[in-house]
């Protein structure tokens, strides 16, 4: 960490040599005060930006910091500053003030010198708490941390009476023997198994398999585990005219119980449940027909933000799975003032929520004690097993082995003072889950920097959780000491569905999908574009993102520049690409019309108004998230009111009129050109060549952070610029780091962000490898390592898709 050079010379600055140092220091300070740009800054900039660039409330709240060069700052100041008097700070004044700002507080080196950033002590976020509890209980259920494998679908068991068989060519009076045999065989039971990709059957009056089962009476059972792709509320729906029972995350009590049929009509049974993303939940659906005229059964779900559809085989494993504990306690929202969720706020509501959560877990453990602790009521070894369970529970919660003192305080003392061993065990659970060592992960390792601390950090960063059994065993065996060992473990963890769920959260944030949840379109302007259409587009986006990220190349460049979409029949018809069937298919487009997430209809629709496009919203998104250009918050927010413009104007003409003032153009000189490149797409993301009966004009130009004039003629130019821009790569790396580690990158060293960016480029822009490097960098921070990071190629591969 950089420090002021003379901050610790007070005691050693003795004699002539020491005096000369002090004189030099004084001259340096005096020189800084007399910097030719300091006076210009004080006169023209400080009123809005503060004396030291710290920002001024209600004028320019954000501190002056960034990645522009001095040359770029000079050009920017000449064009846009000071606000309201643009063009009055030019020439030598602009050069001097840019140099002063850069050296004093703007550049990364100045930031590190003036305000050293350190890791903050943080508590568990809501997601980390929920996942940690699920993992903690899962430690005591066999097979919980195994690989779900690649096989997908429902394991189906079909059973019932065998069909009767008669001689086909004998007269009735000559076929008595065959009839008797047929009656006997009609009472025999048949059973067979298979893997079904969906549960959607309309048998009518027939049998599922006439050669093996009679049609009048049969039973079916599908089982396996549902893998939730993301955290949220899932609605499960069963349509049938027969008896059914649905078990979900509880093999004993039915989630939906409709075993007794009320009548012959098809009915719909449904119920909702909150699930954590990336985890498997045991599932079984039982169905039977007994002399009803017809049989049918269909299983559907409505995932978070999705639409009702058949449960896809891609989210089902035929393997059995132990039940998971999902905490239902409501927690206050985490702080997002830094742009990403962090556990930095402490409140009475949060403390009360952790108490309720601990009590909920205690009750669950008590209810499932014998299965979790592996004991039985009245067994001679019950107390010993309860103590052993309690010890392993606390160690899992604290993410490391207990010391002798901790074991005495947390385990032995509780059992000694409790009226019964069961009460002692309950006290242990409450103490562990209310302990700062559980709620503040770093406190468990404050005196140690060892394998356990590294394992804890990897679990937090990649799974928002505590270490699973495999990671804990790796730590206990001392196999997290070198960089290569840590990297191998990170790569193993990234392949797990829990990491995929966390990365879904990153893309939700990076692509600003929150705004899509409330996006609505005028049905008169866009007939047929409804909630179901948005749900299909959301599925299309996730198919695209997952297909890129979890491919072998995991190429960020494809996210930005790919010329295809995933469409089903309904989307294909709406977007002019005929597709047959409800299954999503990869469909190619003109390479000049589609560019990855930049032009995905789901984002374009969410970044538009109900009846028209919004170049400003689209331009801000492209500037910050795709191109990686810094924007200040507007000093005055001006609402766009379409009714106040001449109805003959195009949207580009309206926005240009609205933002034409010099004070607006400081930012809109970047926002507008980028937003205009997407004007060939209407408010629902369809390609168009005219707006308000005028040809669409999508060409414009902007200055980047290096002060270069960039000409863009459409989305492909924006994508190509981002692919070759270190600023764009840096912005992507920074946001992924923040989401993963939940700490500022500067806390890990001034060069960390650029080192990760260079590794990202050298690795062919592989997102999975970037995620692993981020996790390893954070896990090893502060640990002297005999294995330095790999050298980064001086000439990374060209940034082309």
Blueprint of the fold:
Blueprint: H1 15-33, H2 36-44, H3 46-49, H4 70-80, H5 91-106, H6 108-114, H7 126-138, E1 154-161, H8 176-186, E2 189-196, E3 200-204, E4 217-227, E5 232-240, E6 243-248, E7 256-258, E8 267-275, E9 280-290, E10 295-302, E11 309-310, E12 316-317, H9 348-367, H10 369-373, H11 382-398, H12 404-417, H13 421-434, H14 436-439, H15 451-463, H16 469-476, H17 483-494, H18 497-510, H19 531-549, H20 556-561, E13 564-567, H21 569-574, E14 585-588, H22 601-606, H23 615-627, H24 651-658, H25 662-676, E15 690-691, E16 694-695, E17 700-703, E18 709-712, H26 715-723, H27 726-741, H28 752-762, H29 767-779
Antiparallel strand pairs: 1-2, 1-4, 3-10, 4-9, 4-12, 5-8, 5-10, 6-7, 6-9, 10-11, 13-14, 15-16, 17-18
Helix pairs in contact: 2-5, 4-5, 5-6, 9-13, 11-12, 11-13, 12-13, 15-16, 15-17, 15-29, 17-29, 18-27, 23-25, 23-27, 27-28, 27-29, 28-29
Describe this structure in words.
By secondary structure, the protein is an alpha+beta fold. It folds into four domains: 35-114, Cytochrome Bc1 Complex, Chain D, domain 2, CATH 1.10.760; 154-317, Sandwich (Jelly Rolls), CATH 2.60.120; 348-501, no CATH class; 512-723, no CATH class. 42% of the residues lie in helices and 13% in strands. The chain is built from 29 helices and 18 strands. Strands 1, 2, 4, 6, 7, 9 and 12 form a seven-stranded antiparallel β-sheet that branches. Strands 3, 5, 8, 10 and 11 form a five-stranded antiparallel β-sheet that branches. Strands 13-14 form a two-stranded antiparallel ribbon. β17 and β18 (709-712) form a beta hairpin. α2 packs across α5 and α11 (382-398) crosses α12. The protein is globular, with a radius of gyration of 32 Å. Mean pLDDT is 89; it is low at 1-32, 168-175 and 793-801.
